[in-house]
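Quick review question:
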């Protein structure tokens, strides 16, 4: 039986609005389905949009079974699946469970109101396409949409990107890769192997500690032999059409350059949470307030799921240790509905 309070049309009102169509948003939808609760997922991009924006040839650190949701087996050719296999898997989950998905629909604002029919609090969710109402909101928006900027002159030039997809277009070009974690290392190795002249600019004294263990020796060997150049303890200070200035421990170095791939990390949209009235911690982590048992925030009936729960600490939560968030949230919502 559908636990829904009829307010307007069946097309615009749902018990739960899930903001974010990644694996954790999908997991919340699957749990809602099992409980017989009406919902819709609103995703501003493609299905599992963050995974879609990963490099084309990326291999996950996690094994396939740790990425499973909804009890649907994830079978991959190797223990660690590729991006293409993950996209296929999550499409299959969406299809097999007939998930209610509204893709390429961005939430612009949320208003808290009181229903003229029931006298209870409801939310009006305004998107770039239409409006919805719901009694509960689950935010599962991840952290891949807002890159950390270099904040240097020339960063807005067309030659600069904060995302990396595939290496072919960089063949026989002078490429600077900024960063030292997995995405930067993958971009440096892949573009070099396609014939690019690659230089890495690394803020700290070494390649990142979280780089995949089977990739780490490769990048270190390429740097040691000089195939890929690396400036440690360095930063980009200016970007021009054909050159880049790098501040190094020995002073400014100017390099000829065709492309800059700035892979310095990403951050969650915490401004969206603040606009909803969700409290954030006073330290640099800016961790949102939520009940660890129910995942309900200080704003009643708004819940957080997935990486967004960690605030700026985006490396604490992953798909494999966030799937349980869905069960906690839906259990809380279901209990509340049974009391009404």
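Suggested answer, residue by residue:
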């Amino acid at each position: 039986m559908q636990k829904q309070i009829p307010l307007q049309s069946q097309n615009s009102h749902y018990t739960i609005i899930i903001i974010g169509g990644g694996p954790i948003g999908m997991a919340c939808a699957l749990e809602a389905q099992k409980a017989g609760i009406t919902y819709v997922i609103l995703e501003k991009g493609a299905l599992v949009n963050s995974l879609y924006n990963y490099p084309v040839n990326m291999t996950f650190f996690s094994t396939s079974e740790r990425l499973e949701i909804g009890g649907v087996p994830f079978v991959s050719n190797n223990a660690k699946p590729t991006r293409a296999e993950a996209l296929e898997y999550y499409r299959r989950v969406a299809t097999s469970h007939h998930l209610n998905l509204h893709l390429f629909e961005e939430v612009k604002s949320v208003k808290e109101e009181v229903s003229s029919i029931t006298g209870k609090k409801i939310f009006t969710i305004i998107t770039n396409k239409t409006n919805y109402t719901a009694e509960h909101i689950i935010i599962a928006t991840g952290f891949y949409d807002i890159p950390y900027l270099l904040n240097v002159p020339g960063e807005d030039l067309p030659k600069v990107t904060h995302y990396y997809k595939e290496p072919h277009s960089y063949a026989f070009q002078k490429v600077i890769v900024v960063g030292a974690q997995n995405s930067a290392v993958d971009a440096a190795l892949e573009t070099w192997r396609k014939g690019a002249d690659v230089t890495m600019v690394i803020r700290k004294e070494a390649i990142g500690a979280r780089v995949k263990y089977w990739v780490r020796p490769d990048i270190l060997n390429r740097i040691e032999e000089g195939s890929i150049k690396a400036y440690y303890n360095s930063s980009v200070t200016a970007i021009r059409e054909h050159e880049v200035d790098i501040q190094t421990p020995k002073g400014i170095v100017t390099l000829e350059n065709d492309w800059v791939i700035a892979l310095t990390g990403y951050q969650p949209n915490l401004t969206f949470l603040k606009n909803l009235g969700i409290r954030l911690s006073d330290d640099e982590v800016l961790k949102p307030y939520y009940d660890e048992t129910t995942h309900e925030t200080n704003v009643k009936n708004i819940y957080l799921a997935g990486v967004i729960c960690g605030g700026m600490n985006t490396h604490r939560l992953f798909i494999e240790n966030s799937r349980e968030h869905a069960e906690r949230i839906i259990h809380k919502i279901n209990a509340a509905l049974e009391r009404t």
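Why it works: Residues 1-10 have pLDDT under 50 and may be disordered. The CA atoms of residues 150 and 236 lie 8 Å apart.
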